[in-house]
Amino acid sequence: MRAISRVGLGLCLLAMLAPGVALADDAPGSCNVPAYLLTSDASLPKVAEALKASRPLDILVVGSRSSTIMTADATSYPWRMQSALQEKLPAATVNVAVELKVKKTAEEAIAGFAKMLEERKPVLVVWQTGTFDATRSVDPDEFRDAVDEGVALIKTAGADVILMNLQYSPRTETMISSAPYLDNLRVVAQKHEIPLFDRFAIMREWNEKGEFDLFSPSPGIDLAKRVHDCIGRALASLVIEAARINPGELRIQR
Amino acid sequence: MTSVAESPAGAPFGPVATDAVQAQPAKPRAARPESAASKRELRLDLFRGLALWLIFIDHLPPNLLTWLTIRNYGFSDATEIFIFISGYTAAFVYGRAMVEQGFVVAAARILKRVWQIYVAHVFLFTIFLAEISYVATSFESPLYSEEMGILDFLKQPDVTIVQALLLRFRPVNMDVLPLYIVLMFFLPPILWLMLRKADLALTLSVALYAATWHFDLYLSAYPSGVWAFNPFAWQLLFVFGAWCALGGAQRMARILSSNITLALSIAYLLAAFFVTLTWYVPQLHPLMPRLIEQWMYPINKTDLDVLRFAHFLALAAITVRFLHRDWPGLKSPWLRPVILCGQHSLEIFCLGIFLAFAGYFILAEIAGGTLMHFVVSMSGVVLMSAAAWLFSWYKRVAAKAGPRAASNDADLAGGAA
């Protein structure tokens, strides 16, 4: 199977220069993500402000527990993001907290937002949503309204927001219709001019390039950990990129 | 739009029907001396067959062939073509039945057809259940624990199956047939009105479409959400197809042959192509004016966005203009497989959905990769064509065996031979 997919991949690359696919020179395991997936027109002014003022960078990850490794385990993406950020910004203090909204639609999740924001007072909220809504085929319009409202709440509370969309899950592709939810997350991000972390496109890219075999019938915990590691690192890159921060400058200031 | 006074009272369908046979759809050069019965509108079969192939390919995971499907080059996709042509052929076949045999008989035949489509849908649902149960028992992934929530349906089979029979629980990729069922179910009254006041019927349809957008009409689904194809909105394409079949196309001939229409259509298609390009080539994205983006997105498929409808109209206008019904290519053996598929649309549609499931299974369980994707897609298309050929052969044999054995449903685009 491996051999076939390699041949197929080669043929694919030869046969077509798929638009938008950057053929980077990445070795497996390198977590490489095409640059266009990690750039954003939108910026993160509060993050930039906190870093420049040498204030701690408090990040709150709100998620619906995509994977079973997410709880307080150092291998899930929020903690991988934290260590990647810390590595890239040695001068800054990066704190990460996770708020789980398990089995909650976006609409149900935002009910607790006001209280959560008041307690945590984050500088940046990474909001991962859409999967539960997609499995329950919630009306995409209602989903959009809920996300819209949630983002507005976070912004009013004085924090930056990054929206994170669904995982690319080839196994359940015939059962879950993710397209409307992906589209609507993009629409909300555009409307509020906030960055969207396109987890779906990134994971699909990894799968296509053979970095991860997401089709695998018995992926095991190891694959999950490696994917989360890469997701965390990519997320950290997006934070730095969107905050328009030059890590080198921060170091000099200190 | 011209008035409906063209149809003389007493024999409302007769003259219109003859016109439609000779000049559909919207042939710029009107009525030519052809024997109506021997001439089947092969263009309808061709495009419906093509739509079935594209729907099959779109239901497989993205691969090389996916780049050939029209949804990558504009707003509308194969669903629009399928629904429009279904409306066209249904009106054509059952419209004639209604004139010849009366309302009751025609309505009964339509309802028989509805039943067939319903049974086909339930059959596909069974296959889906088999697939999802298999995944539930054999697939264990900590990475995708949330996605596996989709399998929760299996915990309450009683509710799920009853909801599926009520057409309220519809898994992904199984949305077209329920829409088709509802549209066909309401065909008798639509046709009744259409045969008397065609333009009024079309106007009502447009009004319902507008009301759908204005009052946010929808059909709810199980466990939450709405029908992925809102029948209140999508009926517009179906009724428009019916209207074209019953003489509307001919009356639009003037508009369709004008150069202004051509220029507008080409301009719109190019603009839509550019917009879709920005989805796939992110480098182009900055060229899109933000205001236009905010006005345009999201392009709503559920409620048949006006942009999608307009895109379909532009495609249709250009097709009708440049592809004449007597184009010799329509008889070429190369197009024969597509045309055959179009002539057995319900069977081939179901087969396509089944093959998409099966293809998925092969890609997941046996081998993945682009080459394998290509092989699976091509085999699917070949199997669909072979099956269509088999159906045609059987139909021919059955017809020879005796006139009573031959059924004449809306399968044959452009009327039964």
From TrEMBL, chain A:
The signal sequence is 1-24
One function term, GO molecular function aspect: hydrolase activity, acting on ester bonds
Q: What is the name attached to this protein's record?
A: GDSL-like lipase/acylhydrolase family protein
Recorded hits in Pfam families, A to Z, give: NonGDSL
Matching InterPro entries, A to Z? NonGDSL, SGNH_hydro_sf
Q: Which SUPFAM superfamilies match?
A: SGNH hydrolase
Lineage summary = Bacteria, Pseudomonadati, Pseudomonadota, Alphaproteobacteria, Hyphomicrobiales
Alphabetically list the UniProt keywords: Signal
TrEMBL record, chain B:
Q: Which domain of life is it from?
A: Bacteria
One Pfam annotation reads OpgC_C
- Tagged with keyword Metal-binding: no
For this UniProt record, the keywords arranged alphabetically read as follows: Membrane, Transmembrane, Transmembrane helix
* Transmembrane regions: 42-61, 81-97, 117-136, 177-195, 202-220, 232-249, 261-281, 306-324, 345-364, 370-394
Give the protein's recorded name: OpgC domain-containing protein
This chain's source organism reads Rhodopseudomonas rhenobacensis
